[in-house]
Write a structure and sequence with these properties.
Largest sheet: 6 strands, mixed
CATH class: Alpha Beta
Number of domains: 1
Strand content: 25-35%
Order of helices and strands: HEEEEEEHEEHEHEH
CATH architecture: 3-Layer(aba) Sandwich
Radius of gyration: 20 Å
Distance between the termini: 63 Å
Shape: globular
Strand order of the largest sheet: 1-4-5-7-8-10
Number of helices: 5
């Protein structure tokens, strides 16, 4: 076999491949499966929002499948998920961190903070789901508590201790895997 530049990489069972392109995909996958469970059981209708892109160029192909050759982000995205649960609008962002002691605020963009602020102001149920991946803890932090921290602190990260005090631990389950709506019921008294 010819390898690029005449070199080859031998991988064995102890070789660890590190990729950074899909950080947060484990949590996202589990939330998508949870949302599918909620939908199938007629509990809630909550979807992952697509990232808004503007297609510039399509590939010419003989099949009817369109292949995007060139595109750009049309506008900044807001949060990851939205939908409806018990007649209330739900909107949230899901993030993972490898940090064991805090959640870096640079994981949330300014326009996302402003979106969270607007949803909270208009009475929607808005929150963050943050997973501390290395210590396997997942918290739900309400928008109000998140915004209070952002507005009242100069820190560049939210300490794990703040999640323990203000947040709600989402316990791992089999079905649904990330049962965040049971936490919402606990907070709002079953609505």
């Amino acid at each position: 076999m010819k390898y690029p530049m005449g070199s080859k990489k031998i991988m064995n069972s102890t070789t660890k491949v590190v990729t950074y392109g899909n950080r947060g995909m484990d949590l996202e996958k589990e939330i998508n499966e949870t949302n599918q469970y909620y939908l199938e059981k007629d509990i809630a209708v909550i979807y992952k929002k697509p990232t808004p892109i503007k297609v510039v160029k399509m590939a010419n192909s003989k099949s009817n499948q369109g292949i995007i050759k060139e595109a750009f982000f049309e506008m900044p995205s807001t949060t990851d998920y939205n939908g409806i649960y018990k007649l209330k609008y739900i909107d949230f962002e899901a993030k993972e961190t490898l940090n064991e002691t805090s959640f870096p605020l640079n994981n949330i963009h300014h326009h996302q903070i402003e979106h969270i602020r607007r949803i909270d102001h208009h009475g929607g149920i808005c929150f963050l789901i943050v997973r501390f991946k290395k210590i396997n803890l997942t918290y739900l932090l309400l928008a109000r508590d998140f915004l209070d921290f952002v507005d009242e602190n100069t820190r560049k990260s939210i300490p794990l201790e703040y999640f323990k005090i203000k947040g709600y631990l989402i316990k791992d389950k089999f079905l649904p895997r990330v049962d965040y709506l049971s936490v919402i019921d606990q907070i709002y008294g079953g609505m």
